[in-house]
Specification:
CATH topology of the largest domain: Jelly Rolls
Shape: elongated
Number of domains: 2
Number of strands: 28
Bound molecules: 2-oxoglutaric acid, fe (ii) ion
Strand order of the largest sheet: 1-16-12-19-10-8-4
GO molecular function, one term: metal ion binding
CATH architecture of the largest domain: Sandwich
Largest sheet: 7 strands, antiparallel
Pfam family, one: 2OG-FeII_Oxy_3
Number of helices: 10
Family: Belongs to the iron/ascorbate-dependent oxidoreductase family.
Keywords: Iron, Metal-binding, Oxidoreductase
Radius of gyration: 24 Å
Protein name: Fe2OG dioxygenase domain-containing protein
Amino acid sequence: MDPLDALRNAISSKPPYCTGTIPITDDNGVVYYRKQEQAGWLDLSRATEGDLEALVQACEPATFGLEQRDVLDESYRKAWKMDRTNFAPRFDIGESHLVERIRAQLLDARDNTKGIKAELYKLNVYGKDSFFKSHKDTPRSDTMFGSLVVVFPTPHEGGALVLRHAGQEWTFDSAAVLREKEQRSMAYIAFFSDVDHEVTVVTSGYRVTLTYNLFFESGESDHPASDVVPVAFKDTVFQTALTSALEDPNFLPKGGCLGFGLSFKYPIKRGQSLTSLRKISKMLKGNDSMIKHVCEQMKLPTTLNAIYQDKYRETKILVDEIMNMGDGEIEGLLDLLAEYPHNGRLIYDYGEEPPRTWHGPIEERSIGILWVTPLTTYSHFNSPYVHYGNEASLGCAYGDLCLTVKVGPYENRRGSIESL
Ligand SMILES: O=C(O)CCC(=O)C(=O)O
Ligand SMILES: [Fe+2]
């Protein structure tokens, strides 16, 4: 197989989510709640119709974010919500070891000390005819990477979570999963927040969930997920494909630059400081993290870059730092970005002629890239990324980034591969 095709195949589509079940114990289905002066509680592991109706009475209709506003529109989302100031679940996220499971199953399995925080967000009730159409979850800060939904075993039908990403689709029918379990359990699903997802119509009963926002935390966790068997990453396949490519004298014979369009989006704060790309490179998800790990292990210099286009969409510029662009479009992008510290370079496809512009000699300020995975969209740092979100946009937007990997000429890399 052509080495480039082998590399592409090796970046297989690991699903952007993980799921599982948690056994019900004496009290982990109990939720206390209040509405103004009234208080109540129920046990969601054995709730009656009356308990659930009382819970709904204490909830409010659920809104969602449409660009900058929170809106109530029952043709887009029909459900109830309770804010976290108004309820307290007995379910203890720490005791459940869910964070360790998410670290092992969803994130890079080897990085089992990465600090993760799960912050309780809402209680939601989906009754008969409830649903939530396709949306992405609004990033609440630049360290938020995912969402976690815990579904209680209240009898219901429908209300499956359908996820779509990069042309693929997955369905998690928690009601069916819980119905089939012998031991009474809760179900959970954690997914990256930039994945499109929808809740299908509940046809009977009540679907009650807790939602959590997942954040990376700086500092290392003291509890590596030692008892959790990680879902294997396809990193050995990628490493093998990359080794074969480097051993092939026809593959970038004179050396060059490999480009990987990322599989996921990352929240970029508006007006973010210049060092932010380095910070983001520590928070890569799924395949993106795997590519970086493997390349670094193989001693290939790997950088996370951002790409900007000029006003006329003719030139694309690769930079080492995110630029604080404000809201306007930039005309003399190349002039601006070539300056320190952005180190902007004009990009063109490997094998083609470097572009000619009116900017004098261009060679040293341009770079040919052999794209292993394509860049699908370009940077939109100055516009809110989430159109339909679960909350109105906060100060973050997702931007499009790429990893670039420097590969030496064939002559030089022979020795280094053998010594691996
Ligand atoms: O209930 C679910 O499974 C997902 C809900 C959701 O997408 C949200 O609240 O943003
Ligand atoms: Fe959502």
